[in-house]
Amino acid sequence: AQKITQTQPGMFVQEKEAVTLDCTYDTSDPSYGLFWYKQPSSGEMIFLIYQGSYDQQNATEGRYSLNFQKARKSANLVISASQLGDSAMYFCAMREGPIYNQGGKLIFGQGTELSVKP
Amino acid sequence: GAVVSQHPSWVICKSGTSVKIECRSLDFQATTMFWYRQFPKQSLMLMATSNEGSKATYEQGVEKDKFLINHASLTLSTLTVTSAHPEDSSFYICSARGLAGLKNIQYFGAGTRLSVL
What we know:
heterodimer, A: mainly beta, six-stranded mixed sheet, four-stranded antiparallel sheet, B: mainly beta, 0% helix, 54% strand
């Protein structure tokens, strides 16, 4: 069964500094996708970044990058130049199976609450 | 990203009444929709998956007679909490996924906070 683990319940970072949010996963399926979502206090889930298991390069989207270490089964999110608006819950998620298939469930980790200090 | 609209954003109801929550994909056809439940400071728990025109698949432990899901069109899914009780109070979030490229990203609605008195 697939499993996602986020071991940092809360993190603090100074504004303008970089921060890494940890995520490890476990799956026996060679084909899977890893996702990061941001959930501000308003509750909406905002998609940030995606990494496929067969992608050769680490994904990047603006200030977000995903440090994908397949052998270690980790998919850490790196946020560069933190902003006050980055304060939120961050969830790592995984879906097994080929990414172009319609099947597969998105399973979430426990989340990390990030607080950006001015 | 794609837009998913969820309505209402907040509802208070009396115990024993039913509440309907709507989830719409506004700019894409959602072949699959998902309903999640989230308690404060906790992760999202998948309740059910629905494909347009077919019955929803419920996760283990979720009462399908309590949480009725209808996915009648490619842009609309509804969750009805029947005979709601205080223990059903929670944050419910819908998610939609379509053939939006190879990544098949799941996009989420803004959620519905349900309070049952």
